[in-house]
């Protein structure tokens, strides 16, 4: 078991209170590590360090090429430590090793992408109706607070830190108290690369105290948050009521995955299962509402049920595991409560719904992949984000009805459409009110493309050129080229 410290002002430190938290392997309940349990006072120290680093220009005054070089070095170090990071991610959040390996490589790719973009932050010159040279320049926002969730810990740290640093900001990042370990390993990597003190601070602690300090502190210029919609609303309110700091929010989803009768049947079956159960369903973009055209509905459900036994549950480090445990016992309780809600609402439980039996599962937070049919759009299991391995299948008769059901949600994060008719695919995707859509696939995510939602799935975008925009201010500069005195009196 390793005892971690957090990273404030270029140093690894304990919390002021000396309190620590035990980190458990969600598959076995074994202790994996201890981390400092910070409070508002620790967070204030980190924010002050970041403020000083920004105001002194320790990072924003470096050249873009130097920032790019630094980000490339982080990526390289992540790749060199990929095995350790992937295994640690599995032990901390439960996901299968193959998924953790993918996340680690993707995190490195994200740093590389923004390393490339660091040198391409351009302004423009603009013709104005006077004798001026007028320019628009882009500048870093300042001290950026970043709160990340527990489902993709290292990857979310990369999505937040890479664009912010590329743009010249300084950061205080708070991982979830449940899954802080790979972020703390990232702190070690950053420390070894000798970034100026205070530019990156990684502070562990509970959302309700350490996280709220980030939202209310007036020395923070911007807060970026990924997590639940309710928490996102609280953060936006705190940000507005303190210093109106900039806010970007990547929140939840109840995403429709729509299968038309003219889809490639086998590909759609795999896409439906992968969309719902990858990463145990703990994915904001999970295809947790499966809309299936009535004429193929029964055959489609039958085909999914035949494949369910291939989704092997187990410890993420065990060969062949396709689905691990849920992140915590509290979260499992929440998922199980939703399964009971589905049953009491009259949906038909066609598989799963319970904990797997056997010695290897007894101390972990496992729940079997669960499918409900006969779900109506009004049921809570069709409307609320469960964030676990629970798929709600809804029948539809026409394309219009499919679009109507798909959009009948407070969320607007992601959607999938399965059809071999390209005209229909284009027409349907065009009507879906969501920020991320896939045709004949589900889940692929690219560092080059904007990630984020419509409606209550948040605002702002991460990744791509759009992601760096969230970390830049825009300034106009007007240089008078006319020496004639101003004639106003
Ligand atoms: P939260 O939204 O509560 O947590 C996400 C992050 O926010 C964590 O770092 C958490 O810290 C922090 N946080 C929590 N409360 C506050 C607060 N008041 N002020 C500042 N930061 C805070 O998600 P949960 O873990 O409770 O999960 C609840 C639901 O949120 C899930 O069931 C799911 O529906 C959704 N969710 C969505 C995610 C997404 O990717 N969009 C990711 C995770 C959850 P800490 O964990 O340390 O308390």
Tell me the CATH architecture of the largest domain: 3-Layer(aba) Sandwich
- Taking Cα atoms only, what radius of gyration do you get, to the nearest Å? 24 Å
What is the CATH domain class of the largest domain?
A: Alpha Beta
Based on secondary structure, the structural category is alpha/beta
Give the percentage of residues in beta strands: 15-25%
User: Residue share in helices?
Assistant: 25-40%
Q: What is the CATH homology-level superfamily of the largest domain?
A: Aldehyde Dehydrogenase, Chain A, domain 1
Largest beta sheet, briefly? 7 strands, mixed
Bound molecules: NADPH dihydro-nicotinamide-adenine-dinucleotide phosphate
Let me know the average pLDDT. Answer: 97
User: Which sequence of strands runs across the widest sheet?
Assistant: 15-16-17-14-13-19-20
Question: What is the overall shape?
Answer: globular
Oligomerization status of the protein chains: single chain
State the total count of DSSP E strands: 23
Domain module count: 2
Number of helices: 15
